[in-house]
Each structure stands twice: as structure tokens, then as C-alpha cells.
Amino acid sequence: MADQTDHFMREVQDEMRKERLARTWDRYGVFIVAAAVLLVLGVGGYQFAEHRSLSARQAAGQEFEAAARLAAGGKAQEAHQAFDAMVKNAPPGYGTLARLRNAGAYAAEGKRADAVAAYDAVSKDTSADQLLRDYATLQAALLRVDEADWTEMQNRLKDLTNDTNAWRAPAREVLGLAAMKAGNQDEARKAFEQILADSAAPPSTTERARILMTILTEAALSKAAQPGGAGAKPGEGSATK
């Protein structure tokens, strides 16, 4: 008897659950279906967008390599056209890289003014990645070091030589060279000493800084040893009657 009662109660409970489910479906079924459809569309849309983004990056990478080969092969005009097309059509990151590579192509052709203008344009573009903007600033300064005065070089490199900038070591090297060119040995020595004290500086940059410091020291000693130099005593080097 107890078994029959239990069986009957289970049947009643099953029927009640079915009835509740039916009522719930009648009231909310359309919303459940809509939510499921939206979920599927959302996942599908995300996957489609990811696929398109990946495809665009892959295509941009191939275009960049093709343009770089044109530049390396001496086909300057075709290379510039290819890089310009990438700037207009490629994803933002590749567009900036194309602008930088285009500027480098101008520099390789000896078109220094065009290269500096192209690098300056990237460095001033607030939509570009800051690391790439700083790289453009550094390259423009390097191209200007032979012609620019000390003030211009300071202005170009002031934001790159701080202790947190990723390009600080090469920026300090360029600034030191500019100081040497301007005859400002104290500023040159300061820049090279900062490189030597920076454990994160590339070994090649550190080695060049060490060589340049040696040149500065030898020049100072040579000057001091000359008659009337900094190391001469009062009266030394003057003609005697």
C-alpha cells in the first residue's frame, strides 16, 4: 500500500512540474527563445569579428613585407606607394608601422628633409602608440643631429631622456653627440655618464658611451696640457721678455 501511495505521489508531482513548466513556457517562452538566439548571434558575431580582424592583420602583414621588399630592392617609388596605401587601408598598428617604414625609406634614399617630416608627423599623432611616437621622435632627432643647434636637439629629446622612457639610452647617446658637436662637453659627459649608470642600456650603446667618454677625457687632458690650458699655472705659456 505504501509503495502504491509513493508511486501515486510521484505521478502527482510530475504532473505538477509539467504543468508549471507549461505555464512558464506559455508566459516566457518567446523571451527564452529570443535570449538563446541573441546568445548564439552574439557568440557568432564575436567569432566573425575576430576572424575578420585576424584576416585583416594577416593581410596587412603580407602587404608590409611586400612593400619592404620593394624598398630593399631599390624600387623607391613603388615602395612609397605601397606604404601610403597601407596607411589608408591597414589596421591602425600596421598603418603606423607603414608610416615609420616609409620615413626610413626616405632616409635611405638620402631625402633627409622628407624623412624628418614623416617621422615628425608620426611623433605628433596622438592616435598612434606612444612607444612608436617616441621612436619617431628619436629617429627625427638622429637625422637632425648634424645640422640642428643645441637648443633644437634639447627640445626634440627632452621627453625621451627621462629614466622611465624605453628609448632613453639611444636618446641620451644622440643628445651627447649633439652636445659634443656644440662644444658643450659638460652636457655630453652628463649624457654618457647616464648611459653608463643605466643597467638596462643596450651593451652596444654602453660601449659607445664608454668610448666617447674616453675621447672627452683625452681631449680635456690634451687641452689642459697645452700652454695656457686649464692645467697651466699662472704665467705659463706666456712669452718672456
The count of helical stretches stands at 9
The helix content is over 70%
- Specify the biggest β-sheet: none
Mean pLDDT score, rounded?
A: 76
H/E element order:
HHHHHHHHH
E-strand count: 0
Query: What is the beta-strand fraction?
Result: under 5%
**Tertiary shape:** elongated
Terminal CA distance reads 144 Å
Oligomeric state of the chains in view? single chain
Provide an overview of this structure:
- With 241 residues, the protein is mainly alpha-helical.
- Among the domains are: 64-144; 147-225.
- Helices cover 77% and strands 0% of the residues.
- It has nine helices and no strands.
- α1 (2-72) packs parallel to α3, α3 runs antiparallel to α4 and α4 packs antiparallel against α5 (130-144).
- The radius of gyration is 35 Å and the shape is elongated.
Question: Which tags fit this structure?
Answer:
241 residues; mainly alpha; 9 helices; elongated; disordered C terminus
Topology:
Layout: H1 2-72, H2 76-89, H3 92-108, H4 112-123, H5 130-144, H6 150-157, H7 168-181, H8 185-196, H9 203-225
Helix pairs in contact: 1-2, 1-3, 2-3, 3-4, 4-5, 6-7, 7-8, 8-9
Condensed summary:
The chain has 241 residues and is an all-alpha fold. The chain has helices spanning 2-72, 76-89, 92-108, 112-123, 130-144, 150-157, 168-181, 185-196, 203-225.
